[in-house]
Design goal:
The complex is a heterodimer of chains A (543) and B (323). In chain A, the strands form 5 sheets. In chain A, strands 11, 12, 13, 14, 18, 19, 20 and 21 form an 8-stranded mixed β-sheet that branches. A 4-stranded mixed β-sheet of chain A has the order 1-10-9-8, covered by helices on one side. A 4-stranded antiparallel β-sheet of chain A has the order 4-5-7-6, covered by helices on one side. With 543 residues, chain A is of the alpha+beta class. Chain A has 15 helices and 21 strands. In chain A, helix 8 packs antiparallel against helix 10. By secondary structure, chain B is mainly alpha-helical. Helices cover 74% and strands 0% of the residues of chain B. Chain B contains 14 helices and no strands. The longest helix of chain B is centred in the middle third of the chain and has 39 residues. Chain B is globular, with a radius of gyration of 24 Å. Chains A and B meet through helix 5, helix 12 and strand 20 of A and helix 2, helix 3, helix 5, helix 7 and helix 12 of B.
C-alpha cells in the first residue's frame, strides 16, 4: 500500500471537521446505548437527475456512487484514503514492483447467481481498453499485460513500476457472462448486474433508482434493507426535503449554513459532516493563444483575484484557496507552497513587464495595436460560476483588462474545450485520492488527455513522470514538492479553491464514519455498516 | 386535414436540422466530464456507432421511416424505448395540467362572469386589482412560499415528488398519497392561469352584455341572471373555446419551473434534460408529440365551435381552419 495520506494532511482535515461541527464520533457513543446493529430501514438520497447506469463508461459522481454499491472493484478506498481490499482479499508486488498479483475472494456470486471469477476481471480490463467501448482507458496506460493463471488469481504486469498500480483497480467490475452483444445484453445500463452489497431493483428516469440489500454479499448482508436515490432537481428543495423527512441526506446550502448550524434542534436531529472535497475549481487559460502563453500574464490573472475573500463572502468560508492541484489531504501536499496572494499592484506590474501597458484615455491595456480583451466561457446552471466570473471581470476591469463572459451549456462548453476554441474557461476537476496530476498537466496528448489548455513545460513533464514511477515515498514526496513549486510559478491554470462540503444525514443512522476528504457514503465498507435501531426505523416494508 | 401533414413534416425537418447544428453532441455521447475529455479515437468510434458520418438527409429519412411505424428509438441516456418513457411522463404531466386547468376554469369562469355582471361596481374593481396582483406575482415564488408553509413548517402536505408510499401499499391509501402530492403543484399551476382566465371571461361576457341582442332581451323583460348566463355567457364561449384549443398542447407541455420545484418528473423536465444531455431520440419524439397536439388542439377547437355556436358548420370547415 504505497498510497497513504500524510499525517499532517489528515490532521488538518480532521481539525476542520472538529472546528466546523459536532463530532460524529460523539453521536456514535450515544447510539451504542441504543443497541446492537439490526437489519431494516432504507436510506433515501436525493440526486439532481437520473444518471446513465452504464458502469463501463460512467464518469459522473452519481453513476459512480450507484456502481459503488451495485458492483465491486478489486480494491477500494478506506476512511483515510488508504487502499483497502474489496473483492481482492489480498495482493502482493513482485519483480521490483513490476508485477502485481491479486488474490480474489472465492465463492462470490453475481446477483443473477453466476460465479465471479478472474475471467470477469480480465473481461473488464479488455472492455475498458477497447476504444469501441467508449470507456476511459488512460488509467491503464502503464499496464503491459493482465493474466488469470487460475479462477481466483489475477496477475498484472506493468511496463514500469507505477504509483497508480492499485488505484487503477478501483474501477467497477463487469460480468463476462452477460457480455454478448454488449449494448443489447441483459446487463444493459437499464438493469445493471453486479456482485455488490446492494442489488439493482428498478430505475425510472427523472424519478428514482431503487436498490435492495444483497443477502448473499461476501461480507454479509448490509444492515439497511435498501437505498433509494430520489431525483430532486432543485438544490433548495433537496435541503427542505431533508427537513420534512422525505429524504435522509442533503448537502447544506452555503446560505443556510449560518442559520442552521446555530440551531440546536438541527444539530440534534441530523449528523453533520464537513470536509474539504476532492474537487478543484479552476480557470484554464488557452496557452496556445497569444494572450496567455506568457506565465507572467497568468500569474497576474491569479494575483488579481481575491479568492479567499470571495470564498469568505459568498460561501461563508466554505472553501480553501488552492496553490495547485494538491489537496491538503493528498500525499505529498506541501503547506510551504502558499496560494498566490491577492495583490492587484503586483498583477499590474507583471502585465507591464509582459508588455501590456495601460494606455489612456480609455484606460485599457495594449501591446502594440492589440487590446487586452478576452472572453471567459462558463457553463449554464451554476450560480457560483456566474459570481466568480463577475468578480474576475470586475477585478480585471480595474487593471485595464477587458473580459466578457459567455455562458454555454455543458456539452457545448466541452466541445469548445476539446477543439481548443476558447481563450479562458471556468470549470472544475473531480480529483482522485491519488495526487498524480499527469492527466491535467502533461504536454503529451496521450499522457495528458485533459491538458486542453495546451500547457507545455519539459521540466513539468519530467517531474510528472518521475512522480508517477517513484515507488519510494521519500523520493516521491521530494518530486511532488518541486512539482508544486513549479505549478505555483507557472500558473498553468488559476487554481481557485477546494470547496468545503457540508452535508447532513438523518440522526437515526448509526455507525456512520466520517472521511476527512469525502462524504461518509464514499469509504468502503462505509454504508454497509450503517444501521438503524429498531425503534427508530422509519422506512420498512417492501420498496 | 391533409394540410396538417406538410406542417408536421416541416416541424420535424426544422427540429432535426436545428439539433444537427447544436454543438456538443459527441461530448454528450462520450459522457465527457470536467477534466476528462475524450480522445479523438473514441470520438471516431462513437461517430461510427451512431452513424453520424452519414449525410443528414439519410439520417433524417431513416428516422422518418421509423416514425411512420411509431418507432421512436431508444434513449441515449438509459437505453430504454423512448415510447415507454414518453407514456409514463405524459400521463403524469397530463394529470397535473388537467387538474390545474379544471381548477382554474372552475373558479375563473363563474368569477369573471359575475364581475362582468357587476361591471363598474366596487366589487368588480377590487377584483380586477386583486387579479392583476395575482397575475404579476410569479408562480415559482408562490410555489416556494407554499412549500415552506404547508410542507416544511406545518407538515400538512408533502413537499415534493409523486408518491411517498411503496407500490405495495393498499390502492386507497396510495390514491390519497398521490392526491396529497398533487395539491401544491396543481394550486401553483392553476393560479397563474386563474387571473388570466377570469379577466378573459369578464371581458367577453361584458362585450356580450353591451350588445344589442342583450338589450332586446332585457326589453322583453328577461331577468338579469338569465341575461348574463343564457345570453351573454353563451356567446362568450366561442372565444373561450378558441383559447382552450390553443391550451391543448400546453396540457402536455409541462412547466419546467413548477416541475423542478416540486420534483414532478413531467414533460417539461424531460425535454429540458434530454436537450442538456443531447438525448436526440427523446428530443425529437417530444417535438413530434407536441406538434401533433398543436394540430389536434385546433381540430378540437373547431369541433367545439359547433357545439358552442350551432351556426358554425362542419363541412369543409375543418380544412380551412387548419390551413
Amino acid at each position: 500500500m504505497r498510497l497513504r495520506t500524510t499525517r499532517a494532511g489528515c490532521l488538518l482535515a480532521l481539525a476542520l471537521l472538529l472546528v466546523g461541527c459536532q463530532s460524529p464520533t460523539a453521536q456514535r457513543t450515544d447510539s451504542a446505548a441504543v443497541g446492537h446493529p439490526v437489519d431494516g430501514d432504507r436510506l433515501v438520497i436525493p440526486i439532481i437527475s437520473t444518471p446513465s447506469l452504464d458502469f463501463l463508461t460512467c464518469t459522473d459522481a452519481w453513476c459512480l456512487l450507484v456502481a459503488h454499491f451495485v458492483t465491486d472493484s478489486l480494491v477500494d478506498e478506506g476512511e483515510n484514503l488508504e487502499t483497502v481490499p474489496r473483492i481482492a482479499s489480498s495482493w502482493e508486488f513482485s519483480e521490483q514492483d513490476r508485477v502485481l498479483t491479486f488474490h480474489l475472494r472465492e465463492g462470490v456470486r453475481w446477483h443473477d447467481g453466476a460465479p465471479f471469477t478472474s475471467r470477469d476481471v480480465l473481461f473488464t480490463y479488455r472492455r475498458t481498453i477497447d476504444p469501441a467501448s467508449g470507456a476511459r482507458a488512460d488509467q491503464f496506460q502503464d499496464v503491459q499485460e493482465v493474466a488469470a493463471p487460475d479462477d481466483f488469481t489475477v496477475k498484472v504486469r506493468f511496463r514500469q513500476p507505477t504509483v497508480l498500480a492499485l488505484d487503477m483497480w478501483k474501477v467497477p467490475l463487469l460480468p463476462e457472462h452477460l457480455s454478448e452483444g454488449v449494448r443489447e445484453a441483459p446487463n444493459s445500463p437499464s438493469h445493471p448486474i453486479g456482485t455488490g452489497p446492494f442489488r439493482f431493483v428498478r430505475s425510472e428516469r427523472g424519478r428514482e433508482i431503487v436498490l435492495e440489500a444483497n443477502p448473499d454479499y461476501f461480507l454479509g448482508r448490509p444492515y439497511l434493507d435498501g437505498m433509494i436515490f430520489r431525483v430532486i432537481p432543485a438544490p433548495a428543495t433537496q435541503f427542505q426535503a431533508l427537513l420534512t423527512g422525505e429524504t435522509d441526506w442533503s448537502s447544506i446550502p452555503a446560505a443556510e449554513w449560518p442559520k442552521q448550524s446555530s440551531r440546536p434542534e438541527f444539530r440534534k436531529q441530523f449528523q453533520i459532516f464537513e470536509y474539504p472535497a476532492l474537487f478543484l475549481h479552476y480557470i484554464g487559460w488557452n496557452e496556445r493563444g497569444p494572450l496567455f502563453s506568457d506565465a507572467r500574464v497568468r500569474q497576474a490573472m491569479t494575483l488579481a483575484l481575491d479568492r479567499q475573500g470571495f470564498v469568505n463572502k459568498v460561501f461563508h468560508g466554505a472553501g480553501i484557496a488552492a496553490a495547485g492541484t494538491f489537496h491538503p489531504g493528498h500525499f505529498g501536499f506541501d503547506p510551504a507552497v502558499r496560494p498566490l496572494p491577492y495583490d492587484p499592484e503586483k498583477a499590474a506590474k507583471l502585465l507591464d513587464e509582459a508588455g501590456w501597458r495601460l494606455t489612456l484615455p480609455q484606460g485599457v491595456r495594449r501591446r502594440g495595436n492589440r487590446v487586452f480583451r478576452f472572453t471567459l466561457l462558463i457553463f449554464q446552471g451554476d450560480p457560483m460560476q456566474q459570481q466568480i466570473a463577475s468578480l474576475l471581470a470586475d477585478s480585471l476591469g480595474r487593471l485595464g483588462v477587458q473580459m466578457e463572459i459567455k455562458v454555454l451549456d455543458f456539452p457545448a462548453l466541452l466541445e469548445r474545450m476539446h477543439r481548443h476554441d476558447f481563450e479562458a474557461v471556468l470549470s472544475g476537476w473531480a480529483l482522485s485520492s491519488n495526487p498524480d496530476p499527469t492527466a491535467l498537466l502533461h504536454s503529451d496528448p496521450v499522457l495528458g488527455p485533459s491538458n486542453y489548455v495546451g500547457y507545455s513545460n519539459t521540466e513539468m513533464d519530467r517531474l510528472l513522470l518521475d512522480g508517477r514511477h517513484a515507488t519510494d515515498p521519500g523520493k516521491r514526496r521530494e518530486i511532488y514538492r518541486r512539482l508544486q513549486e513549479l505549478q505555483s510559478r507557472d500558473q498553468p491554470y488559476t487554481f481557485l479553491f477546494f470547496p468545503v462540503v457540508r452535508v447532513a444525514l438523518d440522526g437515526r443512522f448509526r455507525d456512520v464514519r466520517a472521511s476527512p476528504v469525502a462524504s461518509p457514503l464514499k469509504p468502503y465498507p462505509g454504508p454497509l455498516r450503517w444501521y438503524v435501531p429498531t425503534q427508530l426505523q422509519k422506512r420498512t416494508g417492501p420498496s | 386535414m391533409l394540410s396538417a401533414v406538410p406542417t408536421l413534416l416541416g416541424i420535424t425537418l426544422v427540429t432535426f436540422l436545428l439539433l444537427e447544428i447544436l454543438p456538443g453532441r459527441e461530448m454528450a455521447l462520450a459522457r465527457a466530464g470536467e477534466g476528462n475529455l475524450p480522445s479523438r479515437e473514441m470520438l471516431d468510434r462513437l461517430r461510427q456507432t451512431y452513424h453520424l458520418d452519414d449525410p443528414v438527409s439519410t439520417r433524417y429519412f431513416h428516422w422518418l421511416i421509423r416514425l411512420c411505424r411509431w418507432d421512436l428509438g431508444e434513449s441515449l441516456l438509459d437505453q430504454r424505448p423512448v415510447n415507454e418513457t414518453l407514456r409514463v411522463t405524459a400521463a403524469r404531466t397530463l394529470a397535473l395540467n388537467l387538474l390545474a386547468l379544471s381548477l382554474a376554469l372552475a373558479i375563473a369562469v363563474p368569477l369573471g362572469t359575475r364581475w362582468a355582471a357587476s361591471a363598474g361596481s366596487r366589487r368588480d374593481r377590487l377584483g380586477s386589482v386583486l387579479m392583476y396582483l395575482l397575475y404579476a406575482f410569479p408562480g415559482f415564488a408562490a410555489a416556494l412560499i407554499l412549500q415552506n408553509l404547508f410542507a416544511v413548517r406545518w407538515g400538512m402536505l408533502p413537499l415534493q415528488g409523486v408518491t411517498s408510499l411503496p407500490s405495495s401499499a393498499p390502492l386507497f391509501s396510495r390514491g390519497l398519497d398521490l392526491a396529497a402530492h398533487l395539491v401544491l403543484p396543481v394550486v401553483c399551476l392553476a393560479y397563474g392561469s386563474l387571473a388570466y382566465l377570469a379577466r378573459f371571461t369578464r371581458a367577453n361576457v361584458l362585450e356580450g352584455l353591451h350588445s344589442h341582442y342583450v338589450d332586446a332581451a332585457r326589453a322583453r323583460g328577461i331577468g338579469e341572471g338569465d341575461l348574463v348566463w343564457r345570453h351573454a355567457f353563451r356567446n362568450a364561449l366561442v372565444p373561450m373555446v378558441t383559447l382552450l384549443g390553443a391550451l391543448v398542447p400546453a396540457l402536455l407541455g409541462g412547466s419546467i419551473l413548477i416541475e423542478t420545484i416540486f420534483s414532478w418528473p413531467g414533460m417539461g423536465r424531460l425535454y429540458f434534460e434530454s436537450l442538456q444531455n443531447r438525448d436526440y431520440p427523446v428530443v425529437l419524439a417530444l417535438t413530434v408529440v407536441s406538434a401533433l397536439l398543436t394540430l389536434a388542439g385546433s381540430l378540437l377547437a373547431d369541433f367545439f365551435y359547433c357545439i358552442a355556436d350551432p351556426r358554425v358548420e362542419m363541412e369543409g370547415g375543418f380544412h380551412d381552419q387548419l390551413s
